[in-house]
Specification:
Length: 233
């Protein structure tokens, strides 16, 4: 590396010295052919190049003589400090990066660029609630359906894999068979009411999960409400 720097400085000196000599010869033949400013600049550039050659040669001598132990220790300390600064910067950046636990498709992004996001999510002015910052879905051709079974009907619900179900899409004459996945064994209050007069507001429901393969001919999107009919084998 030091030898290459000497060669480069020497080549630069040769080029600038030739330019200086050409201007000096032209000025000697006809002083009006070259401005005094251009000649002085060429002379100064050649002197600077000569100094650069001397510096490069001295650096080469120092390199061949071996590095000073204190210089080595100083460089090692600078490297360690920069490495710690790099690790600290990466750790700080990691606090502002949202990473998905698995591959998927972004279904909704509830945080605008430059918006504030709290640990409980992003505030939605329309619903006046905190929503997830990012909603992800699987990129496969399978969708899931969560069915809320009325607690009054739980005694008639078949056991486990004996359950068969069929889904009807609202607004279309389409029926899709569903495959049972699991029952979430925890009864929760019903959060979606139909506003019927005879409906009880303290009704509780049991979530049951199904899934099905999507059909490219049918427009279906996550979040749609569908009607599901459950029966037994």
């Amino acid at each position: 590396m030091a030898v290459s720097q000497v060669d480069q400085a020497q080549a630069n000196l040769t080029t600038l010295a030739r330019q200086r000599d050409k201007l000096a010869q032209s000025a000697a033949l006809d002083p009006r052919s070259v401005s005094r400013n251009a000649l002085d600049s060429a002379i100064d550039a050649a002197k600077a190049a000569k100094t650069a050659v001397d510096v490069a040669k001295r650096q080469l001598e120092l390199t061949r003589a071996g590095a000073w132990i204190y210089d080595i220790q100083n460089q090692q300390a600078q490297y360690a400090a920069l490495a710690h600064a790099y690790d600290a910067g990466r750790a700080l950046l990691g606090k502002y990066v949202v990473k998905a636990p698995s591959d998927g498709v972004v279904l909704a992004l509830n945080a605008p660029q430059g918006g504030y996001v709290s640990p409980v999510g992003a505030y939605d002015t329309y619903t006046q609630a905190n929503l997830p910052v990012v909603v992800l879905g699987s990129g496969s051709n399978t969708l899931a359906v969560r069915v809320y079974v009325d607690e009054i009907l739980l005694s008639r619900l078949p056991k486990g894999h004996a359950i068969t179900a069929q889904m009807s899409i609202r607004g279309a004459n389409v029926k899709i068979p569903l495959q049972f996945v699991r029952i979430q064994p925890y009864v929760t209050p019903k959060i979606e009411l139909s506003n019927e007069r005879q409906e009880q507001v303290d009704l509780r429901v049991l979530p049951v999960i199904f899934h099905f393969r999507t059909d490219p001919k049918i427009n279906l999107y996550p979040g749609e409400e569908v009607d599901v009919y459950i029966s037994e084998h």
